[in-house]
Amino acid sequence: MFASGEDERDPRLQAISAAIRVVPHFPKPGIMFQDITTLLLHPKAFKDAVDIFIDRYRDMKISVVAGIEARGFIFGPSIALAIGAKFVPLRKPRKLPGRVISEEYVLEYGTDCLEMDVEAVQPGERAVVIDDLVATGGTLCAAIKLLERVGAEVVECACLIGLPELKGECKLNGKPVYILVEPRQ
Ligand SMILES: O=P(O)(O)OC[C@H]1O[C@H](OP(=O)(O)OP(=O)(O)O)[C@H](O)[C@@H]1O
Ligand SMILES: Nc1ncnc2[nH]cnc12
C-alpha cells in the first residue's frame, strides 16, 4: 500500500520524492535509477522518511527490523533504535561470519543471494523488512523466506520507493508492502 494513498496532503511525501535523484541509463541503458543518496543530503526529508516508518511501526510489537544490504542499512538501524527493536542485517553472500542460512533470488540478469545469521532471530518474533526500493520484489521475497525459516512472523515490508513492476499488487508472499512514494520519471 502507498503511504500517499492514506493522506494525499502529507507534505512530507512530496519533499521526500523531490529529494530522490533520478538517473537515466544507470547502471545500464534503459534503467531509470532511483538514487536515494541525494535524499540523505536533505536532513529534514531524510528524517521525515525515517519518522514515517517509526510512527507506523512503534505500536505493532515489532522486535526485529531486518535491513537488506546495502541500502536497507541506511534506514533500518534508526527505525530499530526508535521502536526498541533489534536490527538484523540481511547480507550478500560470504559477508557474515557466523552460521548463516541463504536464499537465492532471481535478478534481471542472473541470480543473487541474501544471508542471515541463524541465531539473530528467535521463533515467534515479529519482524519488519526494510529496503530503499522494491522493483520485481525478488529481494524482499528472499528476505521474507529467511525470516520465516527461523520461525519469525513477517508483519510487513517497507520501502521508500515502489516501482510500477509491482503492478499495484503491493503484496509479496502474502505480506503487505508499505511504500512511501512512486518513482519520478
Ligand atoms: O525488487 P527487486 O527487483 O529485487 O530489486 C530491488 C533491490 O535492488 C536494489 O538493490 P541491488 O540488488 O541493486 O543491490 P545493492 O543495494 O547492493 O546495490 C535495491 O536496493 C533493492 O534491494
Ligand atoms: N530503478 C532502480 N533504481 C534504483 N535501484 C533499483 N533496483 C532495481 N531497480 C532499481
List keywords for this structure.
185 residues; alpha/beta; Rossmann fold; 6-stranded mixed sheet; two-stranded antiparallel ribbon; 5 helices; binds adenine; transferase
Q: If you had to describe this structure to a student in words, what would you say it looks like?
A:
The strands form 3 sheets. This protein has a 6-stranded mixed β-sheet, sandwiched between helices. A two-stranded antiparallel sheet has the order 1-2. Strands 5-6 form a two-stranded antiparallel ribbon. α2 (11-19) crosses α3 (43-57). The protein is 28% helix and 32% strand. The longest helix has 15 residues, at 43-57. The chain has one domain: Rossmann fold. It has helices at 3-6, 11-19, 43-57, 72-83, 138-149; strands at 21-24, 32-35, 64-68, 86-90, 100-106, 111-117, 126-134, 153-162, 171-172, 175-181. It is globular and about 40 Å long. The protein is an alpha/beta fold and 185 residues long. 1-O-pyrophosphono-5-O-phosphono-alpha-D-ribofuranose binds next to β7 and α5. InterPro entries: Ade_phspho_trans (IPR005764), Adenine_PRTase (IPR050120), PRTase-like (IPR029057), PRTase_dom (IPR000836). One of its GO terms (biological process) is AMP salvage. Pathway: Purine metabolism; AMP biosynthesis via salvage pathway; AMP from adenine: step 1/1.
